[in-house]
Amino acid sequence: MFAAYAARIDRDQPLNGLELGERPAPEARPGWTTVNVKAASLNHHDLWSLRGVGISEESLPMILGCDAAGTDADGNDVVLHSVIGQTGHGVGPGEPRSILTERYQGTFAEQVTVPTWNVLPKPKELSFEEAACLPTAWLTAYRMLFTNAGVRPGDSVLVQGAGGGVATAAIVLGAAAGLRVFATSRDEVKRKRAEELGAEATFASGERLPQRVDAVIETVGAATWSHSVKSLKPGGTLVISGATSGYTPKNGELNRIFFLELKVVGSTMGSKEELASLLSFCAAKGVRPVIDSLLPLDQAREGFAKMAQGDLFGKVVLTV
Asked: Parallel, antiparallel, or unpaired for β 263-266 and 69-71?
């Protein structure tokens, strides 16, 4: 079957390790099911995999891709939950949870095999391309907002780095849930787009907000950390799920964190139950993932390049 896969690891030039070509079709295994992929979306996790983060040379070649929607063996339309081993379904009792391609072949292929427990029904209101955007970036944003930040309608939220997959999802979901959403970006075009998606106001990166917020959704990392801390109300919550600009900020702002009794919460992916709630929320409220571009699987390299350059707003989706 045709697939996009990591053939080698290159920490400096990750796209050098990406290959497109034939790979073996997945083999049947007890407790697992094979899904015919209709659409799969890119995540920064795929770029990090090409850099050797989360996988090693011994794992190669590894078909990339965590997210997908397609049809199961009975012809049902389904969406995949990409966290494997969360409750032990389909794996050994001692195996820790992992994101699909850290241990198992991924979704950038004509077929993928996952534990049967990891398959959810696709709502008829969502296309395959839209549903394929949800299991990683959108699920991450959903958990950050509604589980870890604990915000309620009317609360205010700052989303750093408008344009990225998680940030875009947070803007759309937050606005749909009745939050007051503020967003930042270095790019004026991206700021305007964020306002079109429901942000109440947008600001240049690092610009002072007109008011402090109840929560900050942080995926940028070192470059925006200080601004995130300074933007919070006393007792506010900073939720972090990524650090694309680096892991070590110049100023940790520890004095502000303890004096204002701020909460810093790490967040990774989400549960199957949260994904089911997200799917239901999108179907019921007409919320749709923001898709930057649709590309056939054989043009996956173009999609990876867009992500590596930051030249996108929303998700890149590969169709099969």
From this structure: unpaired
Q: Using an 8 Å Cβ cutoff, are 320 and 71 in contact?
A: no
Q: Which amino acid is at 13?
A: Q
Please check whether residue 115 is in contact with residue 91, taking contact to mean a CB–CB distance below 8 angstroms.
yes
65: exposed, middle or buried (Cβ count in 10 Å: 0-12, 13-18, 19+): buried
Q: How many residues does the chain have?
A: 320
Cα–Cα distance, 79 to 75 (Å, whole number): 13
The Cα–Cα gap between 104 and 32 comes to: 12
DSSP readout, 55-84? --GGG-SEE--S--EEE-TTS-EEEE--EE
Check: CB of residue 95 under 8 Å from CB of residue 243: no
Tokens 């649709």: give the residue.
294
Residue 144 banded pLDDT, cuts 50, 70, 90: very high
Judge residue 61's burial from the number of C-beta atoms within 10 Å of its C-beta, 0-12 exposed, 13-18 middle, 19 or more buried.
Answer: middle
Torsion 30-54-86-4 (CA) sign: negative
Output the pLDDT for position 314. Answer: 87
Q: What is the pLDDT of residues 103-127, one digit of tens each?
A: 999 999 999 999 999 999 999 999 9
- Identify the CA nearest to 41 among candidates 75, 15, 66: 66
Could you give the count of Cα atoms lying within 13 Å of 197 in the half-sphere of its Cβ?
28
- Distance CA(320)–CA(306), nearest Å, equals 19
pLDDT digits (tens, 9 = 90+) for 235-253: 999 999 988 888 899 999 9
Q: ∠ CA(6), CA(242), CA(80), 5° rounding?
A: 55
